[in-house]
Amino acid sequence: MKNKIIWITGATSGIGEELAIKLSAKGAKVILSARRVEELKRVKSLCNGKVLVLPLDLSNNSNFKEKVEEVIRAYGRIDILINNGGISQRSLVAETPLEIDRKIMEVNYFGNIALAKAVLPIFKNQKSGHFVVISSLSGKFGFFLRSAYSATKFALVGFYESLRLEEEKNGVKVSLVFPGLIKTNISQNALSKDGKSHGELDSNQAKGITAAKCAEQIIKGIEKEKLEIFAGAGELKAVKIKRFFPKLFHKIIRKQSPT
Asked: Is the whole model's pTM more than 0.90, yes or no?
């Protein structure tokens, strides 16, 4: 990772913050993006070396080309884009207005791929580049209260697997990351049916691994250029159970607490 130019979205908390701290400690030159400037500055103060604070709102992709140009002016290239930013959900399908589904899709999917499309010409011109996309175990199977969130994470998998096939001849790599239960504030910031923050830490999440440990697992996967990177603990077994024993998986998953 030494001297790699690494752009991280959703860099003000949780997994994004820990990735920034750990990658900069490894000698990477990081670009920190999210909406809250003061929080970006706080994370910058925790990082080593050269750090660029670049405010960015995934719900408004009209200026992404200019943001990419700003990174190129500062560093001359981009080696890795870690598309981590997004919002979660805690609401029943039957009670969720369509505008909430659209809002979550706009940020998690359209904002994500819009930035990737803005960076892709740089990767192709360089004949190298690595998209690291933070999906979720909810991108492998649906779960209670997460219909829109899960849909966005499934959608990212389909998009980036297609991109990988199309662009690997141009030196472009894609790693899809599937975090499990990670102790972050994602559940507290998740959208409820009225569009307000859920405001509570899920009990399941409170039992998860730390964001720091998650970041370590992700970085190891990036260094090995894995196609899929799983981060978490025992809950990751659910992926194999669903694949090989779908009926058993359904019996198990429907008994789990939604939060």
From this structure: yes
